[in-house]
Specification:
Blueprint: H1 5-39, E1 43-44, H2 50-66, H3 75-99, E2 101-104, E3 109-112, H4 115-135, H5 141-165
Length: about 180
């Protein structure tokens, strides 16, 4: 039975879409691994907005490209994605910022994420992925999610860093022992 040209074109489009989705997932997981690694390291607390903004731009571009043609996002899917970004990404990002330990070592404010920080990252990713699957939102939205949630975390963390920098006598030899002493 001969195969028609439209069937071949459709098959090529499907394999191209699958390859793009696989690449999106691999890139997103690599970015997530990098973020999680950095969250658990002791380092200078100078929250930057560069990475979150880059991720947001890449995520938006990917989302626009993946929703061209017959894959267009519906109004409902866009609404679900917006709610997901506001409630899950921004909400958990702000809460995560409160779980990061801050201390002043005499020269700079240092930071280190806790296992609670790590756990909240995982909870947020699971929520995002489940909603994406149920609502049929493209996998490219994960980079957008990572950018938005990291931006929210960085903004709240910066406010905390500013408070610690201006507290007299806030010098410790290491991370504070309890969440209550985080500033």
């Amino acid at each position: 039975m001969p195969v028609s040209l439209p069937v071949l074109a459709s098959s090529a489009h499907t394999s191209s879409t699958a390859a793009t989705t696989a690449i999106d997932i691999v890139v997103s997981l690599a970015v997530l691994a990098f973020i999680l690694y950095r969250q658990l390291q002791v380092r200078r607390a100078s929250p930057t907005l560069v990475l979150p903004v880059i991720l947001i731009v890449i995520g938006l571009v990917g989302l626009v490209q993946s929703s061209k043609g017959s894959n267009k996002l519906t109004g409902g899917e866009i609404g679900i994605l917006a709610a997901l970004l506001v409630l899950d990404a921004v909400g958990l990002g702000a809460v995560r910022a409160l779980t990061v330990r801050l201390w002043h070592d005499g020269t700079a404010v240092l930071r280190k994420g806790t296992w609670v920080t790590f756990g909240l990252w995982l909870v947020g990713i699971v929520i995002h992925e489940v909603v994406d699957l149920v609502a049929h939102i493209p996998s490219t939205s994960l980079l957008l999610y990572l950018g938005v949630t990291l931006l929210a975390q960085q903004l709240v963390l910066q406010a905390r860093v500013n408070r610690v920098e201006h507290q007299p006598g806030n010098v410790t030899a290491g991370p504070p022992a309890t969440p209550a002493s985080q500033g």
